[in-house]
Amino acid sequence: MSRLTCALLLAACGGGGGFPDAPPPDSSGPTGTFSVSWTINDQNNQPITCDRIAAQSMTVLAHNLAFEGGATQPFTCSTGMGTSQGLSPGSYEMDFELGGTFGALAKGTKQTPIPITANNNVELMPVTFTVEALGSVALKVATGKAGGNCGAANAGGAGIDQMSITLTHNSDSTCEPIQLTITDGATQTGGTYMINCTTPVLRACIEADQTITANGVPSDSYTIRVRGMVSSKACWLNMDSIQVPPLNKVLIRTLNLAQQTQTPGC
Question: Which of 35, 112, 127, 223 lies in disulfide reach of 83, CB 3.0 to 4.6 Å?
Answer without folding.
Answer: 35
